[in-house]
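QUALITY CONTROL LOG
STEP: pairwise intake check
CHECKER ROLE: data steward
CRITERIA: each record must contain a sequence immediately followed by its structure tokens, with no blank fields

ENTRY 1 OF 2
RESULT FIELD BELOW
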Amino acid sequence: MRHKHGYRKLNRTSSHRKALLKNLAIAIINEGRIETTVAKAKTLKSHIEKLVTKARVNDFNAHRAIFSELQDKETTKKLLNEVAPKYIGVNGGYTRVIKTRTRRGDAAPMAIIEFTAK
């Protein structure tokens, strides 16, 4: 049983899970919305909201912390300069998960995760 377990394993090793979340975070920052499975979307939601909260400060330390997570210069700049300033007066709730369909190949429940329009 997983009572009060802290995170979803997503059937991956820890390094693979970290790489997956990094790539999904880069994709949502660059595109604004992506479609993925419900479990990945829910995990990504908490991951990306922590990054946006750090980015709202928009100082040197925030820049370094976000770059260490994303490892992508252009995406880091976009998060700090375009995405985070929209949420300056907002405490959380930067993204939403909308359940969409069942994937045909393996019947996985799919969802769209996107930034809320502020």
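ENTRY 2 OF 2
RESULT FIELD BELOW
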Amino acid sequence: MTTEPMQDAAPAAEEPNTSDDRIQALEGELEQLRAQSLIDRADMENQRKRLERDVRNACRFANKQLLGDLLPVFDSLEAALNTAPAEDPLRDGVVLTLRELTRVCGNNGLVEIAPAPGDAFNPEQHNAMSAVETRDVAPGSVFQLFQKGYLLNEQLLRPALVSVAKHD
């Protein structure tokens, strides 16, 4: 019989990782996982909020193209009212049609911008087509409205076209 030297297993005390070291390593790993979990949860919450906002905006502005395409219809109906004689029987029909169109579009977030002479010029909502020398209104005020503008849910759809008063 040959005897082979028996190799003794290293005692637990001589192991490079003691149980205390192992516990500390696992606690550190657990803390990292908790921190990563919080970060992932915050990212998911931010993504959910972004998605909700995008869906909400998509719903608010889904009809933007349609309402934008209806603006020339408003212009045509108003032009018809301005040129039609008061006693024309079709005038009442145009008035009712314009009123109903305005109501329906208003229910969908469309708001008219129609500054009157003397109103302050607002570069965010008005587009100045010309400057007119006059003493009838204050300088920097709207002198004349050429075309109404429109807002859709507080976003400019079309600026009002105006002339602005100036003094020499």
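INTAKE CHECK: passed for both entries
DESCRIPTIVE NOTE, ENTRY 2: The chain has a mean pLDDT of 89.
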